[in-house]
Amino acid sequence: MAPFGGVRYPIRMRKVLVIGGEALERFRRGLEEDGYQVVAADAGDPLAAEGLPADAVVLELSAVAEEAAVSRIIQDAPGGQGPAVIAVIDPECPPSFDPALGLDDFVVTTASPAELALRIRQALWRRTGVDARNVLRCGDLEMDLANYTVQVAGQPADLTYKEYELLRFLATNADRVLNRETLLNKVWGYDFYGGARTVDVHIRRLRSKIEDRHHTFIETVRNVGYRFRALPAPHHPEQ
């Protein structure tokens, strides 16, 4: 049975933004063959400035590190605010890679596309807890991101599409406090004109479907927004 009232939604492919020159072409093709949605851009391309919607960014570090848009992506990487960032470096020029940058990982230009794909999976696992089968687990909560299904303690949760997308965004940003404006923008879109009450109503409905006296996954941060707990806590009624 398909989720969301019988409607089958397209499988969400992981998006990788590849920024660099011809040296990254074989990596781009390899990632596409591995099932990633790949967008290629030069460092000066406006697409490079839109790196944040991607799940991961692959950089030809020596060629693009000085670009302002790329610098912003790199600066966001250590705090987990942006996508996972993997650098591709020249093995003959080790000084071009500075460990203090705080990138998620790196490969050398002679590495295989399969190695890069593996390092991206590992980086995404560390960031979001989503495994290679595109399944996210948090205690008794399991989200199959390919098939848009949710189970709690082995029992299916009957979520609407928007409830699912809200849960997915919260869970893949676990332990981060997300305000209502951020949730509106990321889940409903920038052209959505609903207010904060829209978020609160959906959070309340979502909690009623995935939480009980044994499970609490979503915390209210008073006067700010909500936080998904990477380690679920015992249930307690909302104040």
Can you describe this structure?
The chain has a 5-stranded parallel sheet, with helices on both faces. The chain is elongated and about 60 Å long. The chain has helices spanning 25-33, 61-64, 68-76, 113-128, 161-171, 180-188, 196-210; strands at 15-19, 37-41, 56-60, 84-89, 105-108, 135-138, 141-144, 149-152, 155-156, 177-179, 216-221, 225-233. Helix 1 crosses helix 4 (113-128) and helix 6 crosses helix 7. The chain has 7 helices and 12 strands. It is α/β, with parallel strands linked by helices. A hairpin with a 2-residue loop joins strand 8 and strand 9. It has 2 domains: 15-128, 3-Layer(aba) Sandwich (Rossmann fold), CATH 3.40.50.2300; 135-233, Orthogonal Bundle (Arc Repressor Mutant, subunit A). Mean pLDDT is 78; it is low at 5-11 and 235-239.
In summary, what is this structure?
This protein is α/β, with parallel strands linked by helices and 239 residues long. Helix content is 31%, strand content 24%.
Spell out the blueprint of helices and strands.
Elements: E1 15-19, H1 25-33, E2 37-41, E3 56-60, H2 61-64, H3 68-76, E4 84-89, E5 105-108, H4 113-128, E6 135-138, E7 141-144, E8 149-152, E9 155-156, H5 161-171, E10 177-179, H6 180-188, H7 196-210, E11 216-221, E12 225-233
Parallel strand pairs: 1-2, 1-3, 3-4, 4-5
Antiparallel strand pairs: 6-7, 7-8, 8-9, 10-12, 11-12
Helix pairs in contact: 1-4, 5-6, 5-7, 6-7
